[in-house]
Structure formats: structure tokens, C-alpha cells
């Protein structure tokens, strides 16, 4: 079995490092130490910390998109069930992390948008992809009469993602599932009601 490349080790480890420590809290020294590689390896594979963060965001997005594909885009289930399945899947991960880390996309959105135009514009693209998955599920629910149709699906998707990110931010502060549970109760009783 082939050994993973040093670049791959840095990226894989970097997802965890940036998620736990934040962009500003993780220097190249911490990133390479966490990956178990020499510090010089970083500059062999990434031209800057910003370029590295773009790669890490892409890897995180791939994983998030896989969850969305298995839940939000599962056409064999009713749309409301898809949405519940997505939030259930993410809540399991959040619980396993002790309600501490939230979403890397949301964390970086709060942290880096004033310091890095490259990361800000990349976060726009990543957030658009996330929003699109929610919008697809909402449209399916509207078409089936499961979800109210008096609001635009794209607007609802933006609202869902923004509210979800806010609930995860509060969850991190409280280190409790309560904000996530409150978000879900209100979302399904109002915005996603039929």
C-alpha cells in the first residue's frame, strides 16, 4: 500500500488544525508539527498560508458535500426528511467534537474576511455551494407541498445556512447542543412548515 504524500498529510492534518485552532491560531510551525512533517515541506507544496487554507476549505467542502449528497440530495426521501437527516448527521459530528468546533466555513468566514481577499472570495464560492444544496431540497419540498411555497427557495436556503451557522456559533460558546436544538425546532415549525 502506497504511503500518502507529504502534501496529503499536511492537507488532512490541516483540516483538523485550522478547525480546532483557527486560521490565525495555526502558524506554519503548528500546521507541520500536527502533520508530523518538517516545516520546509509546507513551502514545497503551498506558496502561502492563504493558498493552504483554500486547499483545506476545499477538502472540508468535499466532506460536507458528501454528507449533503447523501442527505439533502437523496431523492428517495421526502424533502423534510432529507433536511432532518442532514442536521442529524452534522449534529452527530458536533456532539463527537464536544460541541466545540462548529463549521470550518463559518469559523473562517468570521475570522479571515477582513484580512484576506483570496479567502473571502473563496468562502463566497463555498457558501454558494452549500446554499445550493439547501435550495434544492427546499424546492423539492415546495413542489411536493411539504414546505411552504410563499417564500423563494433560494432566499430560504440563504436563511437556513445563515441561521445554522449562527446556531453553531452559539453552540461553541455554550458548548451545548441547546442552540442547535432550538434552531431546528423553530426552523421546522416556521420556515419549513407546509
Can you offer a commentary on this structure?
The protein has helices at 6-21, 28-35, 39-45, 49-70, 79-96, 104-112, 117-144, 153-174, 178-191. The chain is mainly alpha-helical. It folds into two domains: 1-46, Arc Repressor Mutant, subunit A, CATH 1.10.10.60; 51-191, Tetracycline Repressor, domain 2, CATH 1.10.357.10. The model has no long low-confidence stretch (mean pLDDT 94). Residues 27-46 bind DNA. InterPro entries: Homeodomain-like_sf, HTH_TetR, Tet_transcr_reg_TetR-rel_C_sf, TetR_C. Pfam families: TetR_C_13, TetR_N. Keywords: DNA-binding, Transcription, Transcription regulation.
The profile of the biggest β sheet is: none
CATH homologous group name of the largest domain: Tetracycline Repressor, domain 2
CATH class category of the largest domain: Mainly Alpha
Global outline: elongated
InterPro entries: Homeodomain-like_sf, HTH_TetR, Tet_transcr_reg_TetR-rel_C_sf, TetR_C
Organism: Propylenella binzhouense
Protein name: TetR family transcriptional regulator
Pfam family, one: TetR_N
Amino acid at each position: 500500500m502506497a504511503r500518502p504524500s507529504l502534501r496529503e498529510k499536511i492537507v488532512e492534518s490541516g483540516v483538523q488544525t485550522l478547525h480546532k485552532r483557527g486560521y490565525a491560531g495555526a502558524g506554519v510551525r503548528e500546521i507541520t508539527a500536527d502533520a508530523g512533517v518538517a516545516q520546509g515541506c509546507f513551502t514545497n507544496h503551498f506558496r502561502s498560508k492563504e493558498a493552504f487554507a483554500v486547499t483545506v476549505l476545499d477538502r472540508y467542502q468535499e466532506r460536507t458535500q458528501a454528507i449533503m449528497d447523501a442527505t439533502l440530495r437523496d431523492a428517495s426521501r421526502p424533502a423534510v426528511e432529507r433536511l432532518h437527516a442532514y442536521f442529524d448527521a452534522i449534529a452527530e459530528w458536533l456532539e463527537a467534537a464536544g460541541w466545540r468546533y462548529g463549521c470550518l466555513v463559518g469559523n473562517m468566514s468570521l475570522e479571515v474576511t477582513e484580512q484576506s481577499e483570496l479567502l473571502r472570495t473563496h468562502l463566497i464560492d463555498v457558501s454558494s455551494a452549500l446554499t445550493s444544496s439547501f435550495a434544492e431540497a427546499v424546492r423539492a419540498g415546495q413542489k411536493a407541498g411539504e414546505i411552504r411555497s410563499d417564500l423563494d427557495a433560494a432566499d430560504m436556503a440563504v436563511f437556513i445556512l445563515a441561521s445554522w451557522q449562527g446556531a453553531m456559533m452559539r453552540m461553541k460558546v455554550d458548548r451545548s447542543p441547546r442552540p442547535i436544538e432550538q434552531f431546528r425546532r423553530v426552523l421546522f415549525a416556521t420556515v419549513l412548515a407546509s
